[in-house]
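User: Show me sequence and structure for the first protein, then do the same for the second.

Assistant: Starting with the first protein.
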Amino acid sequence: MIGMNFGAFLTLLILGLIATIVMHFVIRYRMMDSTDGFFAKWIAAWIGGWLGGPVLGHWWFRIQNVYIIPALVGAFVGAFALVVLLKAPVVSANKVLAAKVTSSASPEVMRKVS
């Protein structure tokens, strides 16, 4: 797969686009709402699709020497992994910040806020 032809590149690009559209618009699993997040997931899906064939094996049918099902599964995994890796630090930082705010606030401050 290292020395792929243009047809294989386009096949992986289309499979990555399908996985990205499903993840971004159908499931709405996003890291950013803008087109930047869409294109970042598309790149990660292409890389996942490129790695999908060698990692998951060679089964079902192929187009331009790209096995479709392993590449599609790899594209979904690549897009999902990117979102998880970029969302995890933000979610954990928000939990730590929320814990600090609730533990450091005195009851008087809590009453004034509410």
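Switching to the second protein now.
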Amino acid sequence: MRTVTITGGSSEIKALLDQARDEDLIVRLEDGSEFMLSAVDDFDHEIAQTRRNEKLMALLDQRARQRQTIPLDKVKRELGFGG
């Protein structure tokens, strides 16, 4: 993901950005291409950065495929909670 700083800019772009502060927008070009315009907060930015972490995403994918579970009684015994 790249960050582009707009200085000056057209009044139409400024109006779109102002609208995107309040709600997500879909911008459609004459050729039918569509783009999502959305205000970014710190959490959105953090999520985007996390998704680019290939090692973390691979680990999460691997964990999601795991089907083996540990019975609750065994966990309680190993942690010393009886059972």
